[in-house]
């Protein structure tokens, strides 16, 4: 069975989230966007394919206290309306809980 998160990953961060990526601690207002694309092997290279999903994490310690201070949202493919998160982020947080040491964020800063 293929891992649903297998593919090419692009992670975008606002300024607060960029600081968090460097320090491992995120302040409220941090936003991370995770763009996950299919991949294809072509001409002896790995190339981007169709978009699988766009995931968004927003830090607000009070509003999202039940999910480690993070709000989670996801959109299918290129859709701006087909939401993937239907449980208030509980299933997302269940996976992210293993990353408590980096404030529940998998991505790491790479200079």
Describe this structure in words.
The protein is an alpha+beta fold and 111 residues long. It is built from two helices and four strands, in the order E-H-E-E-E-H. A four-stranded antiparallel beta sheet has the order 1-2-3-4. A hairpin with a 2-residue loop joins strand 2 and strand 3 (45-59). Helices cover 14% and strands 36% of the residues. The protein is globular, with a radius of gyration of 15 Å.
Spatial strand arrangement across the major sheet: 1-2-3-4
Kindly report the average pLDDT value. 95
Radius of gyration over all CA atoms, rounded: 15 Å
Structural class by secondary-structure content: alpha+beta
Number of helices: 2
Fold blueprint:
Layout lengths: L7 E6 L1 H9 L7 E12 L2 E15 L10 E7 L13 H7 L15
Antiparallel strand pairs: 1-2, 2-3, 3-4
Give keywords.
about 110 residues; alpha+beta; 4 strands
How would you briefly describe this protein structure?
The protein has 2 helices and 4 strands; from the N terminus they run βαβββα.
């Amino acid at each position: 069975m293929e891992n649903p998160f297998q593919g090419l990953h692009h992670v975008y961060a606002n300024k607060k989230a960029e600081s968090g990526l460097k320090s491992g601690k995120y302040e409220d207002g941090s936003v991370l966007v995770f763009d996950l694309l299919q991949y294809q092997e072509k001409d002896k290279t790995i190339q981007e394919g169709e978009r699988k999903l766009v995931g968004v994490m927003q830090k607000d310690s009070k509003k999202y206290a039940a999910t480690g201070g993070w709000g989670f949202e996801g959109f299918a493919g290129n859709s701006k309306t087909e939401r993937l998160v239907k449980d208030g982020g509980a299933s997302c947080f269940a996976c992210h809980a293993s990353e408590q040491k980096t404030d529940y964020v998998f991505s790491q800063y790479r200079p």
